[in-house]
Design brief:
With 196 residues, the chain is an all-alpha fold. It contains nine helices and no strands.
């Protein structure tokens, strides 16, 4: 249960801003089939990010002292602070999406480029803290969450009032979750107690 909750928190923190991008993508579709094309593009992009994170996380498992790995918790905290003080604009995403007819590849590229640094910065520390036996649970949870977010993005694209509320508050929600995950990693790995 702890692994599932950590995975949900990690996915939500890295994807709440991507929900705005999904909303933009879904609002630009012309046919029902394109809904699935966007889903598979998101699946492909998310798979790349999770695969890279898992690889680096497993390599970092060979670091001898767990408290050293805990220092990776600083990365999500930095991302959280950065989000609070930055003003990112997702409007270029819709322009990039409409340039090409290869929607699956476009969505995958948009997923990797718009979420890459954040996802790697959160997922690598999370994967470095888990046992190998927990990987299947995490992967299943990641892809269930991705499917849920895709569906929510589609629903939001049909309800512009909700989209504007999410656009207004996503910065604070995302940064708070990043900081909480980073703090959890620092605490759970014994990094804080090591320095105390």
């Amino acid at each position: 249960m702890k692994t599932i909750l950590l995975t949900i928190a990690a996915y939500c923190s890295t994807s709440i801003d991507y929900l705005i991008i999904l909303t933009i993508l879904f609002s630009g579709i012309k046919t029902k089939n394109q809904r699935w094309v966007i889903y598979w593009g998101d699946f492909l992009g998310t798979s790349v990010l999770i695969g890279v994170s898992l690889l680096f996380g497993l390599v970092l498992n060979f670091v001898p002292d767990e408290w050293i790995l805990g220092l990776l918790g600083i990365i999500p905290i930095i991302f959280g602070i950065k989000i609070l003080i930055s003003n990112d604009d997702d409007s270029e995403v819709s322009a990039q999406f409409s340039k090409n007819n290869h929607i699956v590849m476009n969505v995958a590229i948009i997923t990797v480029t718009s979420c890459g640094a954040d996802n790697l910065g959160i997922y690598i520390p999370v994967f470095s803290q888990i046992n190998i036996s927990e990987i299947p649970i995490m992967l299943i949870t990641f892809f269930i969450m991705m499917s849920i977010f895709c569906y929510i993005g589609y629903l939001i694209s049909k309800a512009p009032g909700i989209s504007s509320i999410l656009d207004r508050w996503q910065k604070y929600i995302t940064s708070s979750i990043y900081i909480i995950i980073g703090s959890y990693i620092l605490f759970e790995s014994g990094t804080i107690s090591h320095f105390i």
